[in-house]
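Students often ask why we bother encoding 3D structure as a string. The short answer is that it lets us treat folding as translation between two languages. Here is a chain of 304 residues written in the first language.
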Amino acid sequence: MHTVHKTVTPLATSFFRLPSTLGHKISKRNVTLEFYFWASRVSNKRVSQTSHNAITRRIIMVSREKLRADELLISKGLSFSKKGAQASILAGEVFCKSGRVDKPGQKLAKDADVWIKEKRKFVSRGGNKMEGAIEDFNLDVRDIKFLDLGASTGGFTDCLLQQGASKSYAVDVGRAQLAEKLRHDSRVWFKEGLNARYTFDIDEEVDMIVADVSFISLKLILPASIAHLKKQGQILCLFKPQFEANKTLVGQQGVIRDPKVHARVLGDFCLWAIENELKIEGIRPSRLKGGKGNQEFFILFSRL
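And here it is in the second language, the structure alphabet:
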């Protein structure tokens, strides 16, 4: 048997000469620059059919390389954290040539063109939620000092500071989540790796406590923090029924859709608040739903 030889022409001019049986269209833009230089080294050399097929397979492999959508946003410098990237995607702000990117885990080509439709006003969706609550309760937060429980990326803190608050004490059990712009803001004191279930110290009493926590009940988080709140100070909580209800009441994928369940867990929480000397000032549904579609609620309390 005779070995079949081919002359490999420069890669830039040979993309459409690949065997049609591949069933995979390849364009020049789908091949990384690194691979282009690698392939160029074998240009104009006589190689066996086996080597030619190996080159073809490598082109396909490189062209198919994909990343998660949230990781792709970070790699392109369009987001500064994975959580921020996920928030942008869930808010419906991320697009590619084929349309809107709906899921953070959606696989996209490593060199895909992606963009964010609008520049985010806040570092996370939490800021948009807080902005809606401030408007719904007609709150004036100018010059207040506040404690942010479950600060995470810092959406609540970012919004309150933009609304004129003077100082944020931001705490979270997680680490390396707070947005860089807030880390370097002199108005922000932050403590990471702090479990707010237990007593902790801050420099002064605050005018307001805001809370956005997940996978734990507010009943377990608030008691240790109330000691830092001034008399007649306010507490603004993002109440998440899926983390307050009995597990038997939570639907598939952690979503509660029954308004009767919402009412039951809200009522139970309000009774707990009254027993802990908190006055209920109002309850409003969050203007934005949770990531999985859960209806969340803002509850405003004042300390008696």
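Translate back mentally: The chain has three domains: 5-63, 66-116, 125-303. Keep this in mind for the problem set.
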